[in-house]
Amino acid sequence: KEEGAACAGCGVALQSQSSELPGYLPESAAAREPVICQRCFRITHYNEASSVAIDQDDFLRLLGSIGSTDSLVIHIVDLYDFEGSLISGLQRFVGNNPVLLVVNKIDLLPKGLNMNRIRNWVQRTAKEQGLRTVDVILCSAKRNIGFEHVIEALEKHRKDRDVYVVGATNVGKSTLINRLIRDYSDLERELTTSRYPGTTLDAIYIPLDDGKAVIDTPGIVYTSRMTEVVPRSFLGSLLPDKPIKPLVYQLNEQQTLFLGSLVRFDFVEGERQSFTLYISNALNVHRTKLERADELYSEHKGELLGAPSREELESIPEWTRHSLRVRSGEKQDIFVAGLGWIQANGQSGAQIDVYAPKGVKVLLRPSMI
Ligand code: GDP
To answer: Sorted alphabetically, which Pfam families does this protein's record hold (predicted)?
Structure first.
């Protein structure tokens, strides 16, 4: 295809490098007429939306254009990566439009938890981040848990308005949109696309029976999440697909845990205590003495310590160290965006060092569970 060719469907510039980015045209489809991007192809032939991703500047411009509409905004976040996938400043951009917070992937939580407690945690944390929400819904788009509550809340808060769905990449936005298309849209009428004001991107309009629409927006890429810094080949090991089995470790000070070859956790100082890991069970966990950790890593990363492989590690940024002080008297999570978290039980204080790829968000928070 010649440089600069445009999709006959949505007008976006075509490219064949990345299926994640707008305008993707698989090599195999280049001979097809009319020449349309994969996203338009799926919409027209399968009534199926697949999200594309854009960077922060384009995304903020797009959010700004929502601010000048009268609509309901659904913000979908990943419960398992809450602080990593929450769009900070969303409120500022969407103006007075109400925000419905849909928290996805609750199927990953270990069985038997108190969901009210989790819901309260979500509400408190969202509020601290400056987000006012008309409602918080917990669901799993993939496993179809709680989806009826999403529909109920949509009906209740929509009030004859359009609905914009916004979220970061990999939170399950396409999965949710496709469920909305099947369960909620007016299938008598067709999906359409049109341009977001001031951008080259197409929006998908999913028709509702009152003439209004649910509008899919591209996913924002946050490079502060582990899911965005690892190669695609490794993403499957990072995104859990089954409920997480928490792993409990009794540690003495001066002990280290390697979470695969991706993150290092040092218990530097404090009384013997337990730490509970909520991370993908596909990651290998290796315990060692802190004094041995440097040597072990340089000799065995990508091999004995587990994935990612040495080759994959080469494309991941170098580690930086985060020193954290866990207080005594309350449970706290050491959260690593896009990876999960380690719960400290709070029976006594602890000095912790976490090594994670540069740019990945690491923070201490009140315990979710
Ligand atoms: P998008 O990038 O936000 O559009 O996200 P996708 O819908 O493509 O989903 C990203 C990843 O999360 C995929 O591997 C999905 O299978 C997975 N996913 C989506 N929804 C859920 C869910 O409710 N639970 C779990 N465990 N995984 C989900």
So the answer is: MMR_HSR1, YqeH-like_C
